[in-house]
């Protein structure tokens, strides 16, 4: 609902000046906006991008056919400056807007974020100084130059950080609960401080004593997102570590003395106090991760720390960086930290990840002496040092491997059930790591024909495991595919590049195969130039109902098949193509198969019972007769026409709420004090 101060007219006028000149691919933005709305579930917000065009800006004079006007209307439909700022910052962080050729990506994103903040009257952050007792466990508060604020109110780079930040709960050698912070550095790997998990690592060697929670904050807007709690993998959970560094205790203010500081930096250069833990699951496929093989060394002017101090949710604190020369493997900073901040993500003043926070110290001597300007000092390990250490240990390449793709209690997304399909999950892992590039999903012939066996639901599962913005999807229904190569190439390119007609060659000035090769070459160039940091999924659905496009359109697809092995970040999913249909030009070694078999559909009551056990029934003392009774009801409801679809509807309508009450909700849990 629009507040009195911010009328719709004022909001539109403020937004339009920022977005009117932006260049972006409208289909890509529309898909991102719809996903953002589903995640946030704002009261009074439009249902989707198209709905926003209808409900917003009547009489404003803006034409929704214009990209800039449509973006303005979509943002204004959110109802107020804060959701507008959050949504726009997320789109900027996702890289949806083209930068000018004279700008770096970081400069471009910072400029857009500042422009929107200024337009919405949000130039200044809400800050509050927090004090507390100094911890005796390698943490300290700093004086008045520190400030704390919510990371959602800062710059676009923070949005990516808060998706990847996690709270780590574990125990020490005495069995006492302790907590720290970490962040994703791979699809299944988290980086934290070694001293956070040291006792579990060295004394207990029990991964079940480690629990990792994402979205541990009241302001993420992701209460209905995937279950945020993961455990360490049962085997192979110890990826790499470096020991706890020594600290000079006997001399107050030694960090302000250059000679003593240099001596300490030399002593701790090979003890970086980090641990990388492999999780049971792959949250990084939905959230993304910070690639340690791409970090750069930089001297910061100031730092932002994203962390979980004490029992707090996601917190952002900022402060000056001091003693930056020589920096070596450490960053000295004055951002406020506390017990629980260990393992926090350190960003420089521009939002670039540069460090792993790990300790703070407070001197006990009289701070009034003029030389001792920093009575409190906090320290982080540089990510560059961690990266170099991992290279020495031949462990850097292990970060991007993943454990099996697992459902959360038999569900995806907001508790949407998935029945069977375990073999499909294994196939998806092969596609993710690149050992396979093409996926064929088909339905084996049934003795009794079953309508809608669930093959198209495969796309929903795919999007769950490999989410935006790290993944970009191009979905076509076979009946809608254009018959000629040029129109098909235009439609494909338009999902991520503005004005595709200006990019692609139009004139058929040579033979059809030669012309199509030019089209495919241009398409591949654009994928490399615009989506090099994403995995691109081209999904062709309903291939069992419609033939692939003929004429030059079929030639385009055939040429694409031939080239797909050369484009590392491109994947092709063919849904419904019969197993006996041959694809010319496609290397069989790059093809993975996933079949839906009659056996997986023939007994819905058994399928439901297996799902109910996975959802939590096996861990409760429920009556067996009662469970069988419920399973028989579900099976009867499913019937034989679209059984899995109807079974999913039954669970969503009649079982999900009761399962949440009985087994625990799949949404974000409330914070616990430690």
Automatic annotation (TrEMBL):
GO terms for biological process: proteolysis. Gene3D superfamilies: Trypsin-like serine proteases (2.40.10.10). GO terms for molecular function: peptidase activity. Keywords: Hydrolase, Protease, Serine protease, Signal. It comes from the Bacteria. InterPro entries: Peptidase_S1_PA, Peptidase_S1_PA_chymotrypsin, Peptidase_S1B, V8_his_AS. Its EC number is 3.4.21.-. The keyword Cytoplasm does not apply. Belongs to the peptidase S1B family. This is Serine protease. It comes from Ruegeria marisflavi.
């Amino acid at each position: 609902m629009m507040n009195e101060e911010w009328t719709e007219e004022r909001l539109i006028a403020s937004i339009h000046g920022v977005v009117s000149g932006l260049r972006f691919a409208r289909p890509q933005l529309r898909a991102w906006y719809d996903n953002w709305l589903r995640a946030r579930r704002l009261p009074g917000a439009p249902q989707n991008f198209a709905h926003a065009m209808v409900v917003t800006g009547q009489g404003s004079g803006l034409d929704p056919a214009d990209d800039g006007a449509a973006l303005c209307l979509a943002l204004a439909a959110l109802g107020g400056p804060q959701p507008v700022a959050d949504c726009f910052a997320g789109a900027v962080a996702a890289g949806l807007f083209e930068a000018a050729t004279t700008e770096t990506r970081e400069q471009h994103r910072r400029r857009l974020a500042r422009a929107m903040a200024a337009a919405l009257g949000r130039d200044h952050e809400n800050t509050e100084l927090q004090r507390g007792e100094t911890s005796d466990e390698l943490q300290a508060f700093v004086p008045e130059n520190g400030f704390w604020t919510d990371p959602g109110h800062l710059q676009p780079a923070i949005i990516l950080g808060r998706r990847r930040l996690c709270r780590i709960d574990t125990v020490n050698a005495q069995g006492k609960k302790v907590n720290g912070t970490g962040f994703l550095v791979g699809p299944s790997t988290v980086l934290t401080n070694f001293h956070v998990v040291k006792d579990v690592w060295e004394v207990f060697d029990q991964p079940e004593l480690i629990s990792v929670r994402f979205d541990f904050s009241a302001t993420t807007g992701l209460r209905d997102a995937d279950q945020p709690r993961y455990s360490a993998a049962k085997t192979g959970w110890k990826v790499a570590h470096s020991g706890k560094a020594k600290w000079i205790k006997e001399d107050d203010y030694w960090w302000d003395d250059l000679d003593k500081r240099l001596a300490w930096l030399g002593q701790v250069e090979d003890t970086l106090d980090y641990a990388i833990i492999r999780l049971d699951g792959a949250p990084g496929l939905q959230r993304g991760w910070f690639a340690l093989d791409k970090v750069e060394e930089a001297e910061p002017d100031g730092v932002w720390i994203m962390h979980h101090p004490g029992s707090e949710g996601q917190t952002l604190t900022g402060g000056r960086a001091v003693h930056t020369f020589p920096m070596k493997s450490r960053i000295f900073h004055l951002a406020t930290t506390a017990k629980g901040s260990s393992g926090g993500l350190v960003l420089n003043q521009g939002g670039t990840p540069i460090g792993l926070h790990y300790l703070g110290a407070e001197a006990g001597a009289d701070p009034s002496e003029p030389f001792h300007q920093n009575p409190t000092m906090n320290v982080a390990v540089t990510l560059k040092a961690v990266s170099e250490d991992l290279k020495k240990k031949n462990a850097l390449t292990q970060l991007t491997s993943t454990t099996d793709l697992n459902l959360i209690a038999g569900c995806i997304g907001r508790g949407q059930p998935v029945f069977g399909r375990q073999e499909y999950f294994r196939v998806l892992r092969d596609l993710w790591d690149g050992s396979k590039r093409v996926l064929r999903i088909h339905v084996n012939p049934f003795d009794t024909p079953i309508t809608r066996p669930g093959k198209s639901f495969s796309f929903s599962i795919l999007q769950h495991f490999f989410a935006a913005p790290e993944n970009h999807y191009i979905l076509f229904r076979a009946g809608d595919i254009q018959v000629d190569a040029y129109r098909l190439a235009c439609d494909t390119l338009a999902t991520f590049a503005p004005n595709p007609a200006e990019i692609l060659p139009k004139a058929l000035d040579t033979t059809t195969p030669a012309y199509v090769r030019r089209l495919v070459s241009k398409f591949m160039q654009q994928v490399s130039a615009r989506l090099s940091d994403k995995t691109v999924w081209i999904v062709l659905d309903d291939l069992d109902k419609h033939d692939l496009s003929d004429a030059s359109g079929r030639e385009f697809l055939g040429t694409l098949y031939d080239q797909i092995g050369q484009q590392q970040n491109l994947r092709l999913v063919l849904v419904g193509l019969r197993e006996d249909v041959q694809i010319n030009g496609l290397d069989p070694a790059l093809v993975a198969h996933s079949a839906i078999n009659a056996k997986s559909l023939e007994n819905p009551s058994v399928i439901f019972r297996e799902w109910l056990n996975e959802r939590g029934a096996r861990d409760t003392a429920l009556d067996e007769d009662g469970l069988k009774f419920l399973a028989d009801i579900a099976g009867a409801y499913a019937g034989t026409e679209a059984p899995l679809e109807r079974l999913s509807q039954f669970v969503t309508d009649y079982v999900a709420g009761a399962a949440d009450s009985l087994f625990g909700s799949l949404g974000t849990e409330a914070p616990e004090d430690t």
